[in-house]
């Protein structure tokens, strides 16, 4: 999982709430991603600002990928920490695609990507770093780059479809409306600045009151060995 820590994410993406609430929201987003990865059964590594190197997003992601190749991995699935609707089944599909020699990509609704499946043999580090990261042109450019080096008669870029990420206050509201989880319904109250009754407040304390930062660091950039 390639992302900043929850504390660093809260500095960049506050969702219009207090810093402490923003940290808890990002912790929950990343925790759900971590649990999804665990459910997929694949090994994984987490890459945060503590280990990332580079002057741009593309350089930092490229170096994180190179670190994984240096550990002996030949195939890699990269996911972010802000796509709570990512499923273990989608990770499994990407893994099967990699095992068959393909690459994979899942796009978000802003033109970016929430999942990238890479093959070491076809990874072009400089071209990868130079992609239009954090723009709405990434999805198309990434698909084109991932197809380079593939035998298009027998190999392909698996397209996983679209998922929403959570960068804005609006995204949280839409997530809460779509989710069957009472946790995200409670989160909607917090992010909208609504006053909660005592029962709801107790629920918020039990679900969000205990920081997850005391836990050991979850692994994160998902590795398909």
Index terms:
single chain; 225 residues; alpha+beta; Spore Coat Polysaccharide Biosynthesis Protein SpsA, Chain A; 6 strands; 45% helix; 14% strand; globular
Q: Briefly, what is this?
A:
This protein is of the alpha+beta class and 225 residues long.
SS-derived structural category = alpha+beta
Strand content: 5-15%
- Overall 3D geometry? globular
Alpha-carbon distance between the termini? 15 Å
Whole-number tally of structural domains: 1
C-alpha-based Rg, rounded: 18 Å
Description of the molecule:
The protein has a single domain (6-165, 214-224), classed as Spore Coat Polysaccharide Biosynthesis Protein SpsA, Chain A. The protein has nine helices and six strands, in the order H-H-E-H-E-H-E-E-H-H-E-H-H-H-E. It has helices spanning 6-12, 19-40, 57-70, 88-99, 125-129, 138-147, 169-178, 182-191, 198-208; strands at residues 44-45, 75-79, 103-108, 113-119, 157-163, 221-224. Helix 2 (19-40) crosses helix 4 and helix 7 packs antiparallel against helix 8.
Task: Record the SSE blueprint.
Blueprint: H1 6-12, H2 19-40, E1 44-45, H3 57-70, E2 75-79, H4 88-99, E3 103-108, E4 113-119, H5 125-129, H6 138-147, E5 157-163, H7 169-178, H8 182-191, H9 198-208, E6 221-224
Helix pairs in contact: 1-2, 2-4, 7-8
